[in-house]
TrEMBL record:
Residues 16-127 form the GtrA/DPMS transmembrane domain. It holds the Pfam family GtrA_DPMS_TM. It is a multi-pass membrane protein. This is GtrA family protein. Its main location: membrane. The keyword Transmembrane applies. The chain crosses the membrane at residues 14-32, 38-60, 80-99, 105-122. It is found in: Membrane.
Length: 135
């Protein structure tokens, strides 16, 4: 079975995007645990700060590794910041709601899963939207 051309072009980028997301998620969870367990930061504030730091890593890695850095930062960065702010709001709201019923790490898993799908779609079709990247 042969994959459609569009899928064959998109697949390597999707794999790189997933790898970057894994690294950013690892950063987010590490920072969250360190802030809560070592520094006694309130979990919801720690979650928001961890999200912000992982978003910075996510932008830089996706810009250079996933999408090749062919677009000026002046075009891609404002869109990425808008997506990150929306993602932060979704993450924080989901975390706050889930944390009323779950331990903070389980609440973060719920928040991460809810935020993930929206972030991928916005990155693919808006932040890095260039004809050569969106066949």
């Amino acid at each position: 079975m042969r994959l459609p051309e569009y899928i064959r072009c998109l697949l390597p980028r999707a794999v790189r995007f997933a790898a970057v997301g894994g690294v950013a998620t690892a950063i987010q969870y590490t920072v969250l645990v360190l802030l809560v367990e070592l520094f006694g930061v309130v979990a919801i504030a720690a979650s928001a700060l961890a999200y912000g730091l992982s978003a910075l890593a996510n932008y830089l890695l996706n810009y250079h590794f996933t999408f090749g850095g062919a677009v000026e930062h002046s075009r891609s960065l404002p869109k990425f910041v808008a997506v990150a702010v929306v993602g932060l709001a979704i993450n924080t709201l989901c975390f706050a709601l889930a944390a009323t019923q779950l331990p903070y790490l389980a609440a973060q898993v719920v928040a991460t899963l809810v935020t993930l799908a929206g972030n991928f779609l916005l990155h693919q079709y808006w932040v890095y939207r260039e004809p050569k990247w969106n066949p």
